[in-house]
Design brief:
Chain lengths: 301, 103
Amino acid sequence: MSDPYEILGVERAASLEDIRKSYRRLAKKLHPDLNPGNRKAEEQFKEVSSAYDLLSDPDKRARFDRGEIDATGAERPRQRFYKDFASEAAGHPYADASGFEDLAEEDDFLSELLRRHRQARANAPGPDVHYRLPIEFLDAVNGATIRLNVPDGGTLEVKIPAGTDDGQVLRLRGKGAPGAGQGKPGDALVEIAVKPHRFFIRQGDDIHLELPITLTEAVLGGRINVPTPGGAVAMTLPKNSNTGTVLRLRGKGVRRHAGGHGDQLVKLKVMLPSAPDSELESFVSGWAGGKAYDPRRDMQP
Amino acid sequence: MISKQQFLIRARLDQATLEAWIAEEWLIPSRAADDLAFTDADIARASLIRDLKETMEVNDPGIGVILSLLDQMHGLRRTLTELLAAVPERPGRPVSGRRDPTG
């Protein structure tokens, strides 16, 4: 580093007041915040500041004059300048676009840029806050109101509309972070995570259900009660209903955005009694049709 | 975010000065819950104001004028940056993706 007296442009015998005056003059000219975009000014300002630090301290100045320390001994660490923040992307309250407002009035492109700058001004709306809310399957299908505890100690009432899907994001206007100054608060964005159900499976707007039926119901048919998300409904089982048969309950699925409901698809699964039944055994052993029918006839390799 | 206490220490300000600067709108902290919240940009801006006041001996009305002009200039600088980024072709720069068939 070169000579601090030279940098400040003062005589070696200059008084402290002279040094201060000279520093003030150079700072006005070279301060990086008054010269954003001028890297040379920033470098010079750092040199001038270091030189001033050295020469404004009588003790350091004396030691330097005696040759005990060199000019770099007094480099002062400087935090980032304001211009480094002001040149970053929009989003701080000091951004001011009024310098080209008149130009923007005549130009759509500029006025779009101006609009974006405006959002970053003093009364900018608050940012959106994101939450993730796990809910029960039936609450998602039927709709519900759920209280969400937010980190700052308050609660948010989240209205889950019927038919809400896994991963859907609900926007609660004005429930986000507060705005700057008079700015409106942001929104709360609640991502819904639907927990799986024990036996209902959702595919689009349809509900799929595997329904166990007894051998008697399978063979003879009849009316049975079938659970749906909205409650049990009666369904007529035709005679000879096999495992794998799918029956459709119209309008018993999930509410659609466009109106109406999806369907519930009931896939039958014939269940034998869980314990062996001697009456059934003796009937089946004397049943000729049971031996004639081969369900694996198409499975010859 | 930086709390008010932290800000006063790091910006080397006292409470009364901070209140005066906020009243002048030289500093615009955001309001978090029931207290003020500051950023690193606020600290840098505070030290700019100190430089103006103490080193350059600018008086208070002058500081207001300087800050307002600086903010407008930064607005212009950012807009200019965005404009430059948005202009796809500039003379003297190689143009990628499109080539003049005759050339």
